[in-house]
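Reposting from the mailing list since nobody answered there.

I have sequence plus structure tokens for a pair of proteins and want to know whether others read the tokens the same way I do. The first protein:
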Amino acid sequence: MKMKPDISTLSLAIMGLISQRPQTGYDIRKAFAEKPLGHFSSSPGAIYPALQRMTKDGWICGKVDDEKVLRPRKVYEMTESGRDLLERHLRQSVDRDDVIWRMDDLMLRFSLMDEIVGRAATLRFLRSFATELEAYVAHLRCFLGEAKPSMPVCGRLAMENGIGAYEMNAAWARRALEELETDA
């Protein structure tokens, strides 16, 4: 099994925002509260410790901006090592553990890819994503076929729902791949 970089989905979301433009902690909290990043906590108790960790790790740096305001604000920017880490994380291929345990991370990675790592890397990601999803669906269908006779009805129905969700994601990935290839 390959090693994944030590970057949480919250850190990935913060780095994605900061990579677009320098941000204050308040800017990041506001983005999480107002944009479809709602499942990330907009709480200062989550954002500010993450910013401190990322600064300590050298991924971002904060500079005090006291030019135009009465109360100085700390503005965070990506460091070179932070940008390198972000790019490496975005370029990773997708494996089965990702589709089982890290779907939020995968979609967040996808949302950032085109602007940061380019179209070719985005297309490789989508191909890898679709392939892993389809392989996992085949695995689940095989398991369901073997277990179905002894499986409780609710268990079977729950598993069919899960399989349907993975199939829907695989169909979306193929459709997105087709659209991005046409748009290239």
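The second protein, same order (residues first, tokens after):
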Amino acid sequence: MGYRERTRALDDAARVWKGGYRPYDLVKEASIAVGVITLLAVVLAFLFSSPDERPLTIKGWAHSDPADFVTTALSELDGTSVTASYGPPYNNASDGQHIAFIHLAKWLGVAHPINAPLDYVINPLRSIQGNSTLQQAVATYTQAPAKQQAAWTTAYGKGLAKVNDSVTGVHSLTSASYGPLPTMMDNLLTLAQYGGLDGNLLSNRQFYSTDYTKILMFLADSGFLAARAQSEHLLGTQWGMMNETGSFPGQSWLWLYTFWYQIKPFSTSANADVLVMAIMGVLSVAFILIPFIPGVRDLPRRIPVYKLIWKEHYRSS
């Protein structure tokens, strides 16, 4: 900008306004807005109450769907569950999600370590005192070669797939080809149904036990949680990120995040989360930089919507 242009801009800024004036009480307007919003919040809270559902627990899961619980526990034991093979930040079973050569999960490492066989099966069973038969079964399994362990879990899994969804059906699996697994899984199911597994997975060295990561990951590996999420329209394929339980209104402002999960390649990609976050990061930066992007920053001036909003002002000026 040259000297003349700068001088003209300063003159325009210093020029006395000769148009019309209209009184405007900012405090009054703000008070009215706060009052209306407060009234709406109180009325809507009274009409709709809280959308929160009772939290899902491992105890409730073990009672409602014992076969699914044991099936999931078996997948944790043999390392085939999603959690066991997830990678960072839970374990080193894989490189984790990435974009091309950018492996953020791998670079950041394991922040919330989860050893699925030990955390979900072996250690909880070892915590049960006074049951020598169970402890012998655990020792037999842990000391067996990996090939023998795989043979037991494969045979037990096939048998589990044939029983009905009941505690009696799970306890009926007693074949010798299952090795120590019937004893281990029967006791694990009993521990879960009495609530002991919930407490076991919450135990940590912190004063407040608020880290529910292990419980949530265990539930996430099950068919129980997926079925509940589907019934509440909370799955990713149901735009679940912006939904609320029941018929309550959800987080509509998250529509753009969940939109990407509905289309390919994101809906079928194993790296969907990191890809969506990268796209939203780029879009967010672009939004912040709008005042500095030529052409885009001039759109409000070129599309005179402001004249419709302030039509009375422009009519009187």
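Reply #1 (J.P.):
I read it the same way you do. DSSP finds 18 helices and no strands in the chain.
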